[in-house]
Amino acid sequence: MSTGTLDDKTQNQEEQKGETDVVPAHTAAPHADAPAENSIGLRAAAVAVVVVSVALLSAIAYGIHLRAVSEKRLTIATLGAAIPTVNVVHPTAGTEDGDLALPGNVEAYIDTPIYARTNGYLKAWYFDIGAHVRKGQLLAVIETPEIDQQLDQSRAELERTEADAQLAGVTSNRWQALLAKHAVSQQEADQARSNYIAAQAAVDASEANVRRLQQLQSYERVVAPFDGVITQRNTDVGDLIDAGSGSNNPRQLFHLDAINRLRVYVSVPEVDADAIHDGDTATLTQDSDPGEKIRGTIVRNSDAINESTRTLNVEVDVDNSKGLLLPGAYVFVHFHLPPIANAVTIPSNTLLFRSEGLRVGVVRHDRVQLAPITIGRDFGSSVEVTSGLTATDEVIVNPSDSLASGASVYPRLVTAGGQS
């Protein structure tokens, strides 16, 4: 290849290079802004990534927060469910107007079984159960043929002894006259006098025996010993009658009760014994007529505490001329007692019997406290508390045996009837 050819080729390449390097101004400008646009795009992408990352992190953090809140709520709910809810009541200030109601047994003022005092057969009876009789009225007649025969024999014996005594008296007088004339000895006169005295004693004995048999014969007539009502009749015409004192198991003919005045016996608890005084009034009620109030008077008491029941036996007498009460009735006796200062009344189902003493569960600041109390009067469904409680305390109803001081509880106030 020639040199000239190489030079031409080199020259052509240089010219093409020059043409390539010379670029018009309006075409060269866009190529100059390309790096700036790439930088903006990268920044936008970076921002988008950051936003997405922040959103994702926020979503994760919110989810963790919700889970923590749910766990906290669950924990609170679990702890809340573990705390028991208890029913509580407020003690009632004071007592039932100082009224102590106790059960009592009504008894007739005089309550007597009537037995036969002589043997025989029942000839007739004149009064049945429910009959009101007066003292001395004839209730029945008993036939006693043996007593009648014995009385006749005794009277005959009395006549004989009287005759013997009369003869002995005459003989003694004669011997005394002969003694004055020295016709008989002193010994013979004394013997005649002694025979007269013995004969007179035999007369006295016979008279006593006649009176005894006459008294037994009078028992043929069974009479009422006092005014009252016949509550039992246990015999009939023709029955064989045994004397009450002569039988191991005598049968009573009648039972007589004096009901115009009645006795009511009441067992008063030892804690109230000092408030019961003879002469005070009491009021009686009975379930058959709760609205009827019957006035009674405390007449006496046993003046001693029964060791078994720790009660004082009190007798209340009642005027029953109107027949409002019946012997054997079950009544309630209301004693009006002076009120006790600061005393309250609580239901009986609030009491806790512990080895350390009587307690009640009291809720204070949502926690249990076992408060010691002192019991006054017992009203059955409720009791009087003389110390240890106030009317504002919240006392737990039906406490469990495992209840302990310091336990957390939710109190729910209920009424005496159990309503929330």
Describe this structure in words.
- The longest helix has 58 residues, at 25-82.
- Mean pLDDT is 83; it is low at 1-10 and 14-32.
- A hairpin with a 2-residue loop joins strand 17 and strand 18 (367-372).
- The protein starts with a helix and ends in a 7-residue tail after the last strand.
- 35% of the residues lie in helices and 34% in strands.
- Helix 3 (145-180) packs antiparallel against helix 4 (186-218).
- Among the domains are: 85-95 and 341-413, Beta Barrel (conserved putative lor/sdh protein from methanococcus maripaludis s2 fold); 112-241, Orthogonal Bundle (Helix Hairpins).
- It is an alpha+beta fold.
Radius of gyration: 59 Å
Q: What is the number of strand segments?
A: 22
CATH class of the domain at 112-241: Mainly Alpha
Percent strand:
25-35%
Could you name the CATH topology of the domain at 112-241? Helix Hairpins
Short précis:
The protein is α+β, with helices and mostly antiparallel strands and 420 residues long. It has helices at 3-21, 25-82, 145-180, 186-218, and strands at 85-89, 92-93, 99-114, 120-125, 132-133, 138-143, 221-223, 228-233, 240-241, 254-269, 281-286, 289-305, 311-319, 330-336, 344-347, 351-354, 357-364, 367-372, 374-378, 382-387, 394-396, 410-413.
Task: Describe this protein with a few key phrases.
single chain, alpha+beta, Helix Hairpins, six-stranded antiparallel beta barrel, 4 helices, 34% strand, rod-shaped
Q: Topology, pairings included?
A:
Elements: H1 3-21, H2 25-82, E1 85-89, E2 92-93, E3 99-114, E4 120-125, E5 132-133, E6 138-143, H3 145-180, H4 186-218, E7 221-223, E8 228-233, E9 240-241, E10 254-269, E11 281-286, E12 289-305, E13 311-319, E14 330-336, E15 344-347, E16 351-354, E17 357-364, E18 367-372, E19 374-378, E20 382-387, E21 394-396, E22 410-413
Parallel strand pairs: 1-22
Antiparallel strand pairs: 1-21, 2-15, 3-10, 3-14, 4-6, 4-9, 5-8, 6-7, 8-10, 10-13, 11-12, 11-14, 12-13, 15-20, 16-17, 17-18, 17-21, 19-20
Helix pairs in contact: 3-4
